[in-house]
């Protein structure tokens, strides 16, 4: 297989997978797109600030504030007194936690369905390749946004997140997330 064909197949796979994940996540929540991704981040980063969220979703500060406003309007997130200076902490509500769990479960179903047909050799090859691709993605300017819709439990809980390891090696201070 040529490099051009491999890149083309990867691009088509990534786009199709992203489209299916987004549709499943949007169907599982009252919010969609970047607002859904923000909910997933807030649910797994307790008491983070708007700045923490801005870095995780790769938006401007004003755009991030508007996203938080939408989440607050939907009753999914609350702003509370923060622990670090004047910045307010973003705290997911019980309703928001349920929706975040539902969104991540929908994402997982899509991924499980796509991977269902892989034999053990193909699954092992994919498992070996993915950490390298994620590490490379972390080196790009938008590296922090790669996991904005991840379920951080499986990788971070095992201490085996290739993206977190790459970012921490570059001196990025990652606050520990919490499982939903």
Question: How does this model look, in words?
Answer:
This protein is mainly α. The chain has a single domain (3-169), classed as Winged helix-like DNA-binding domain superfamily/Winged helix DNA-binding domain (Arc Repressor Mutant, subunit A), CATH 1.10.10.10. It has 8 helices and 2 strands; from the N terminus they run H-H-H-H-E-E-H-H-H-H. The chain has helices at 3-27, 33-44, 50-57, 61-73, 94-115, 120-138, 152-156, 162-169, and strands at residues 77-80, 89-92. The protein has a two-stranded antiparallel sheet with strand order 1-2. Helix 1 packs antiparallel against helix 5 (94-115) and helix 2 crosses helix 4 (61-73). The longest helix has 25 residues, at 3-27. The radius of gyration is 17 Å and the shape is globular. The protein starts with a helix and ends in an 11-residue tail after the last helix. The model has no long low-confidence stretch (mean pLDDT 84).
């Amino acid at each position: 297989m040529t490099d051009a064909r491999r890149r083309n197949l990867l691009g088509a796979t990534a786009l199709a997978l992203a489209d299916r994940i987004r549709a499943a996540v949007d169907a599982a929540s009252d919010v969609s797109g970047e607002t859904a991704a923000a909910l997933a981040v807030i649910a797994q980063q307790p008491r983070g600030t708007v700045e923490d969220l801005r870095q995780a979703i790769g938006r401007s500060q004003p755009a991030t504030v508007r996203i938080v406003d939408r989440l607050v309007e939907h009753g999914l997130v609350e702003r509370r007194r923060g622990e670090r200076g004047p910045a307010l902490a973003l705290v997911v509500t019980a309703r928001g936690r349920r929706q975040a769990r539902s969104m991540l479960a929908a994402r997982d179903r899509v991924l499980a369905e796509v991977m269902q047909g892989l034999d053990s050799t193909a699954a092992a090859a994919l498992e070996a390749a993915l950490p390298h691709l994620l590490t490379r993605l972390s080196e790009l300017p938008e590296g922090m946004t790669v996991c904005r819709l991840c379920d951080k439990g499986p990788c971070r809980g095992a201490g085996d997140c290739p993206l977190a390891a790459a970012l921490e090696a570059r001196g990025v201070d990652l606050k520990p997330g919490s499982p939903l």
